[in-house]
Structure formats: C-alpha cells, structure tokens
Write a structure and sequence with these properties.
This protein has one domain: RutC-like (60s Ribosomal Protein L30, Chain: A), CATH 3.30.1330.40. Strands 5-6-7-10-8-9 form a six-stranded mixed beta sheet, covered by helices on one side. It has five helices and 18 strands. By secondary structure, it is α+β, with helices and mostly antiparallel strands. Helix 1 runs parallel beside helix 2. Helix content is about 20%, strand content about 30%. The chain binds 3-hydroxybenzoic acid (3HB) and pyruvic acid (PYR). 3-hydroxybenzoic acid (3HB) binds next to strand 9 and strand 13.
C-alpha cells in the first residue's frame, strides 16, 4: 500500500499486490505500508481483485471506480472478494480498510457517498452471512479523489475474536438516522498467534469521538481527541478483553502502526502534540489530512496493539 498523491489501482508487481491510494495531499510526504510474511507466498489477480496468501493469511485489494451511485458496484466487488476468500479458505476477514473518495459529499441521487457505500457493503455481508460470518475491524475514511479503494486481511477459522466497546453502540446496530444501512464493522479484532513466543494482536478499527451512537464534543478538537483516545483505552483494556473471554489487556502505549486522520489541517499541530504525549515514543504514527465519515467528526485514530501487559 502506498499512501500517496494520486490513485493507482491494485496491480501485481514482482509477485506482490501494490496499490496507490490518494490519501496524502501535495504538501505532505507519501509513505508505504507493507504487509510482510516470512513464509512462501502465492499471489494472483481475479478480475479487479489482487491478492496474495501465505497459507495462514490472505491479503486482498480492489478498487471501485467513480460511480454515480456506489451501492451496486460496491456490493458486487465485496461479494467477489468474499467469494475469493471463501474459495481460498480464508473465511475470517479480520481487518479491512475502505478509503472512500469525497466520503461526505453526495452521490448523483443526493445521498452521502458513505451512506451509499454502506448499503452495498451491508448487502454483501447479509448475502454472505453463512460463509463470512463476522464483520471485521475496519476503517471507513475519506480519500482525496473519486472512487473507493478497499483492502483487507483474512485468516483461517479459529484465531479471530471480534471486539465491541461497551461505551459505543455496535456500528452494525446504529439507528437509521446515520443511513439506511448501518456500517458493517466491529470495533477491533483480537488475533491469537499460534506460533510459540508470538504475542497476540489487537487490530483497532478507526475510532472517533462517538459515545453510544452520537458524536460528542462537537467542534471541540481537544474534547474529540480525549474521547477518541478514551474509547481506544476502554476497547483494549483488560476489563473489556475479559468481557470477551480473553485474558490479555493493553494500554494506549502498546498501540503502534497508528494512523491519525484529521479533517482540518489547522488542527494538525494540537493533534500531533497530544499524540506525542500519549503514544509510545517508538510508535510508528502517520497523520493524514482527510475527511472523516461524519461531517461532525474532526479526528479518527486506528492502530495495532502487540505487547501483552503480562509480558512486561
Ligand atoms: O464504515 C467503516 O468501515 C468505518 C469503520 C471505522 C470508522 C469509520 O469511520 C468507518
Ligand atoms: C468513526 C465512526 O464512524 C464510528 O465509529 O462509527
């Protein structure tokens, strides 16, 4: 994945999927996000899907080009991806990114692009509920040009536990004031590592200043940041993992590979300062100046936790 100044649809390059996503504005530095394996990998393309697998994990990417109305092409693309994941035997999609061009602008019917996207995605999950049961941890965030880039990681059965946050209504149960179909995602995924000495991992979804189903701290960047970080702390806490039948627990300083999405460039300095305070000094953090999926959300944060409290 190259987070860059233009969009380049998924291709196989030297046997590896490569995708350029338009998520970085002209004044900021592009960066690469690389998913590595130490096992032999096999890759391929199938229509618009580009994928690679190593026997344990599947990576798959696809792009839905600009549409007057997204729901049908999004549903078709998601269903094609589910079919591939099912055929290759990776039926637990545990982390997904949806980079939606002009996410809060209207489509040709006057519906917000995000709500339009959510309809197609929800229909695909409904159709595949018996094979691809659970909704993954996900990010749904603005991209800087038209079209929607999606990519995901999937694994075999038995390793993934999907987490919710007791402070937040599950997104898939949001009432219809946020759109005709609720967003199809879990707040996080806990992955049990089977290898000896490997630590378990929590993939934290894009998280924002939402309590219940409501945006809180309107027009208050400091408040939204505090609530967002608090939501992540609750989600990864020992108590919440215990509620999900898991013995581990994590702290905000365990969060790494962090993406911080900031709607207004003017807020970047205060967001950077706060993040420098709460995240570990060695954490890998990138800041992206893009729209968030609700017009009233100023900031959204995602990341990956790896260090178990018990190990420290
Ligand atoms: O719709 C999503 O997949 C999504 C997931 C996380 C945060 C967010 O704003 C949106
Ligand atoms: C961020 C967001 O949209 C959600 O958590 O629902």
């Amino acid at each position: 994945m190259i987070y860059q100044h233009t969009s380049e649809p998924p291709v196989l390059r030297d046997g590896a999927p490569q995708v350029g996503v338009h998520m970085v504005d002209a004044g900021a530095e592009p960066f690469a996000e690389v998913w590595l394996t130490d096992k032999p990998a096999r890759s391929g393309t199938l229509d618009a899907l580009v994928w690679a697998e190593d026997g344990e994990y599947l990576f798959c990417a696809f792009r839905v080009e600009k549409q007057a109305v997204y729901r049908q092409p999004v549903r078709a693309a998601y269903e094609a991806a589910f079919e591939l994941a099912d055929r290759l035997g990776y039926t637990k999609i545990f982390r997904m990114w949806n980079l939606v061009g002009h996410i809060t602008r209207d489509n040709a019917e006057g519906m917000e692009n995000y709500r339009d996207f959510c309809i197609g995605r929800a229909e695909a999950f409904e159709r595949w509920s018996s094979r691809i049961g659970s909704m993954p941890a996900a990010t749904g965030i603005g991209a800087l040009s038209d079209g929607i880039d999606c990519y995901f990681l999937a694994c075999r059965e038995g390793k993934a536990t999907f987490l919710e946050n007791p402070l937040q209504t599950p997104a898939y149960k949001y009432p219809d004031q946020y759109g005709p179909k609720s967003p199809s995602f879990a707040r996080a995924t806990y992955l049990t590592q089977v290898e000896e000495h490997a630590t378990n991992i929590v993939y934290v979804s894009g998280t924002a200043s939402i309590i219940g189903d409501e945006t809180v701290c309107l027009e208050d960047i400091d408040g939204q940041l505090d609530l967002t970080i608090g939501n992540i702390e609750t989600l990864i806490s020992r108590g919440n993992l215990w509620l999900h039948g898991i013995g581990d627990g994590y702290r905000i300083a365990d969060l790494d590979f962090i993406k911080v999405y900031v709607r207004d460039a003017e807020h970047l300095p205060v967001v950077r300062a706060k993040c420098a305070e709460v995240f570990a000094a060695h954490a890998n953090v990138v800041y992206l100046n893009v729209d968030v999926c609700r017009p009233d959300l100023l900031v959204e944060i995602e990341g990956i936790c790896r260090q178990e409290i018990a190990d420290r």
